[in-house]
Specification:
446 residues, alpha/beta, Rossmann fold, Helicase, Ruva Protein, domain 3, 4 domains, five-stranded parallel sheet, 17 helices, 16 strands, elongated
């Protein structure tokens, strides 16, 4: 029989099956040492009436990455502080004395969910691992990146602000023959106009006041690799001529210098403005535009890849797990719906910022629309039929109860005053978390 490995924390005997590898830590201090030395996905917290709720709360907050199952006396379950601890930190609980068969089932379920979560968050192989999503638009972009990366010509990437142009540039570099060389990003709109020439091309000692020594420019530092010129449309016209010379001759002149310096670096440029229109307005050099626009990539805005919305949100949720409040375990169905209905004018950057804020500010176990800043006011001009009002109120009551109960079916049913079977039927009726029903726990205990 396959050996299962968990960490058992506490002095009591929970009656674990003999074939389970369950190292024991008799105290929270010992458990901290064990978790520091050995990774553990699931923990069994064996509680007694003499244990400190505050100490347990602090310990579980430090180790929120693990999935915790608690075994506690019925008397503790009657205390609000302990009930809050279970809601904030535990996937499930049992009361003394635990039934070994049901405890085995609970731990096996927790291990299985931990394995699924590990599979979801594991990075994909390949240079485009940061281009998260499986929509048709992002799949097409990945294919194009693979073709572009194999060539040596300049690349011009277009996309709205926040759509992920730099990620596409990094993917081009990572899949190219220059992957072992440096990738040097330069935001052309962020460097002061009086410094941009020195920053890009470097300067010689004595070239201007304060130039006490020779300095390599950013383009020169990309020798053997790729230089990424973000928002190249903001580059001053006089600097565009110098960049054109570099593209044509692969040489640069430092400020104050008289000798040319050969630089072997591939240029990847990006812009959120249409450079062809900028050429017509006289704001961008036509010859430089055609030099850059050899291999073109279009990064789709988030509204054109809505199938990637929730996978991206989950990706950011796990990528920044160290920032989130310990009690926050995921997104509510209403938050997911709000994300699907939002237009995302700020694209992926907006989604990232909203998710990171919600992870910190959320007060429950699940992120709500208001945590994401996506709560919309009800339309007062549209009358609400009685049946619609009743359905909405019923769904809101179920969502709120599940949130208070930490997605524990037994506690939620008790809170609503219905049986567990009735609550299951209501979940199916309203389609609440229908895609991940297995993530709910029965929480039955004897």
């Amino acid at each position: 029989m396959t050996t299962k490995s968990i960490l058992c924390v506490g002095s009591g005997d929970a009656g674990l099956p003999a074939d389970w590898d369950a190292p024991r830590a008799d105290s929270l201090a010992e458990a901290r040492r064990h978790l520091k030395a050995r990774a553990c996905a699931v923990g069994l917290l064996v509680l007694r009436e003499t244990d400190s709720c505050a100490d347990c709360h602090a310990f579980l907050g430090e180790h929120h990455a693990q999935r915790w199952i608690a075994v506690l006396p019925p008397s503790l379950l009657a205390l609000p502080a302990w009930r809050q601890l279970l809601c904030d930190h535990c996937d499930d609980y049992h009361t003394w004395p635990p039934d070994p068969q049901r405890l085995r089932h609970t731990l096996g379920h927790a291990l299985g969910m931990a394995a699924l979560r590990a599979g979801e968050t594991a990075p994909r192989a390949g240079g485009d691992a940061t281009l998260t999503g499986q929509s048709a638009a992002i799949t097409r972009l990945r294919r194009q990146i693979g073709k572009v990366a194999a060539a040596a010509a300049p690349v011009l990437i277009w996309g709205e602000s926040g759509s992920g142009k730099e990620l596409a540039a990094q993917a081009v570099h990572a899949q190219s023959a220059r992957r072992a060389g440096p990738f040097v990003p330069i935001n052309c709109g962020a460097i002061p106009s009086q410094l941009i020439q020195s920053e890009l091309f470097g300067h010689e000692r004595g070239a201007f006041t304060g130039a006490a020594r020779d300095k390599r420019g950013l383009i020169e530092s990309a020798q053997g690799g790729s230089v990424f010129l973000d928002e190249i449309g903001d580059l001053p016209m006089e600097l565009q001529a110098n960049l054109l010379r570099f593209l044509q001759e692969k040489t640069i002149y430092r400020v104050g210098g008289t000798r040319s310096i050969a630089v072997d670096a591939r240029v990847i440029a990006a812009s959120h403005v249409n450079l062809a229109q900028a050429v017509q307005r006289g704001a961008f050099r036509e010859d430089l535009y055609y030099r850059l626009n050899v291999l073109a990539l279009d990064v789709p805005p988030l509204r054109e890849r809505r199938d990637d919305l929730l996978p991206l949100a989950e990706h950011f949720f796990h990528a920044f797990a160290s920032e989130r409040a310990p009690r926050v375990k995921g997104f509510s169905s209403r938050a997911e719906q709000a994300m699907r209905e939002h237009d995302w004018p700020g694209n992926v950057r907006e989604l990232l910022n909203r998710v990171r804020r919600a992870m910190v500010m959320a007060e429950g176990r699940l992120i709500l629309p208001q945590d994401l800043g996506l709560a919309s006011a009800p339309a007062a001009s549209v009358p609400l039929l009685l049946d619609d009002a009743r359905i909405r109120a019923e769904r809101d009551a179920i969502d709120a109860s599940l949130l208070r109960a930490g997605r524990n079916i037994t506690l939620a049913a008790r809170d609503l005053g219905v049986s567990r079977m009735t609550l299951y039927r209501l979940l199916a009726k309203h389609g609440i978390d229908a895609a991940s029903r297995a993530s709910y726990t029965d929480g039955q205990s004897e």
